[in-house]
Amino acid sequence: MHIKEGEFQGLHVTYNLIDPLEDFNPKFNLADLLSKLENDGYDGINVTHPFKQNILPLLDRLSTEAKEIGAVNTVLFRDGKRLGFNTDWIGFSEAVKSAGIEKSVSALLLGAGGAGAASAYAAFKHHLQTLYFYDPVEDRANALKTKLKLLFPQKIIQTVQPEKFHLTHFDGIIQATPIGMKENPNLPIDPKHLTPDRWLAELIYFPINTPLLRAAKEMGCKTVDGSTMAIHQASAAFELFTGARANTQHMTESFMS
């Protein structure tokens, strides 16, 4: 997406995939990697699971949204400083608008990591009033609960365990865990919670059609896959990297190809 959009705009853009588990020692140090990329002349980087929260202490400044969400997916190297931004929440905001679910008032969030925090933030910026969420890491779940309550004191925010899902009322489900990715093709939730009157927002985009998304479609739920979020977060990141506004139609064509 970034390279093609650069070509459309007459910019020479190089965008490389760096997988620490493949390109570096499995016991690599994130701080060392960040220094290496900065010294190698990168203008910036995108950050994905599982580094969106771990990278925070290594940055010099955070945007307001990144600070409030507590996660970064875009870093700029500028004048010896590392600047952290979050464009995931923009991507999720566009996703819920495109699916027509931005006026929902309650949701169940699966996953309290960086993507989950960004999607919760975006949902509250719309009409969401009540959020139930679950994460198997209790400390992470409690940390997100505390942060969201400070940001949105008028909202109802509760953690809930899977055995209590059936006791909670929610309009839809936000799936923000890595369960369903190619490496972990399982279901993060019992399909019985996918009732036809509920929607599902799946954040995974590799693969596009996850097992949970397929189950939701079969159940007759309104669904939105991870492509819209991926495209719009990339468009916002492109503008940060280059200073040029991305054409989302171009980005979409590149993504779908």
SSE topology string: HHHEEHEEHEHEHEEEHEHH
Strand content: 15-25%
Contiguous helical run count: 10
Structure summary, number of beta strands: 10
Whole-number mean pLDDT: 95
Beginning-to-end CA distance, first to last residue: 10 Å
Spatial strand order of the main sheet:
7-6-5-8-9-10
Short description:
This protein is of the alpha/beta class.
Tell me about this structure:
- The chain has ten helices and ten strands.
- The strands form two sheets. Strands 7-6-5-8-9-10 form a six-stranded parallel beta sheet, with helices on both faces.
- The radius of gyration is 18 Å and the shape is globular.
- By secondary structure, it is an alpha/beta fold.
- Strand 5, helix 6 (114-125) and strand 6 (130-134) form a beta-alpha-beta unit.
SSE topology sketch:
Elements: H1 2-8, H2 20-23, H3 30-39, E1 44-46, E2 61-62, H4 64-69, E3 74-78, E4 81-85, H5 88-99, E5 106-110, H6 114-125, E6 130-134, H7 138-151, E7 156-159, E8 172-175, E9 199-202, H8 211-219, E10 222-224, H9 227-242, H10 248-256
Parallel strand pairs: 2-4, 5-6, 5-8, 6-7, 8-9, 9-10
Antiparallel strand pairs: 1-3, 3-4
Helix pairs in contact: 5-6, 5-9, 9-10
